[in-house]
Amino acid sequence: MATETITQTASPAQIDSLEFPNLPPFPSNVPIAPLHRLSLSKLRRDATESERLFSASKDLGFFYLDLRQDAEGERLLDEADKLFGLGPQLYDLGREELQKYDYKSLGSYMGYKGFGSAIVDEQGNLDRNEFYNIPKDDFLGISKTPFAHPRLLYDNAPLIQDYMRHAHALVSLILDHLNTHLHLPPHTLTSLHRQTEISGDQIRIVKSPPQPPSDLKTALGKHTDFGSITILFNRIGGLQILPPPSLTPPGREPEWTYVKPLQGHCIVNLGDAMVKFTNGLLRSNIHRVVSPPGEQASETRYSLVYFARPEDEVVLKRLEGSDVIPPLQEGQEEEGMNSKEWIKLQAMRLRNTQRMTPEERKKLWEESGRGT
């Protein structure tokens, strides 16, 4: 692997020092994903660190980003910490109250998704988490027809707005670095992701309660992210990635590996839109969420996610003007679907599970392509 990974850049003692206090330790006897560990402060001034970002985006599409010792990074960490405090308050409202903000009947993936309402595997099993999608367009005053949301979120609107703006600034920095290495015209990628324009950008606050030890199942099924860049904060393990064969030792099959949460870091991953823009050069890697490992299995797991997606009207196809992005092969046709259509299709496909039999859920999973 061309880029240093978590196991190569720090000793076990240094990595252990990045565990979160007042939580059960992450176990040492589980396979750990070979994520590159990058530094935000270095990205601002170090060409080598920028090369590492590009390498990580091609090899695995996942990497850690150390936000410490950087003023904007420290600010984002502080806002993320406050939003982690907001998560339990949100779910303390109760499922009956939150169900009022489930907008899938209106064809939207924003708002609340209840526990056990999406398919997670080829057996047709249902998810074991609940989450709330907070739309960027609603909270930054962009949407002309905003949805209603719980009063708790409006009361915390300044925090939500600040986090959205600062997370998006980080996304823009990452896009600018990728833009440079792809030899695209200046600002090509950021011009497709303007925060002031209508898009599917959102904050997601996820709650995954402890599972019965005798009935451990996948909390969130294997998938790739639909958009461009995902910024993830979590404190409890459970996220797993399936490395590609190129990162798997010879003679072995790829196996699911845990992404260990690190204090002071976010986890960044690329989504399907970046694959489409670069004709497969950049990677959107498959991942899932399972019950936390070891002693952490007894904890309620909260996650904080910022999904950055292309503007609604952006067509997801190979970008022009680059001598790095592979050309289309002879006879290769692109779908030509815009971002709004693509994100909605992918987000809603496995949500309509009410009154389905297990056999119908299995068939839907197979047809979705998630099982491949």
From TrEMBL:
Residues 199-310 form the Fe2OG dioxygenase domain. Residues 353-372 are annotated as: Disordered. Keywords: Iron, Metal-binding, Oxidoreductase. Residues 357-372 have a biased composition (Basic and acidic residues). The keyword Iron applies. InterPro entries: DIOX_N, IPNS-like_FE2OG_OXY, IPNS-like_sf, Iron_ascorbate_oxido_reductase, Oxoglu/Fe-dep_dioxygenase_dom. Pfam families: 2OG-FeII_Oxy, DIOX_N. Belongs to the iron/ascorbate-dependent oxidoreductase family. PANTHER family: 2-OXOGLUTARATE (2OG) AND FE(II)-DEPENDENT OXYGENASE SUPERFAMILY PROTEIN-RELATED. This is Fe2OG dioxygenase domain-containing protein. It comes from Amorphotheca resinae ATCC 22711. The lineage of its organism: Eukaryota, Fungi, Dikarya, Ascomycota, Pezizomycotina.
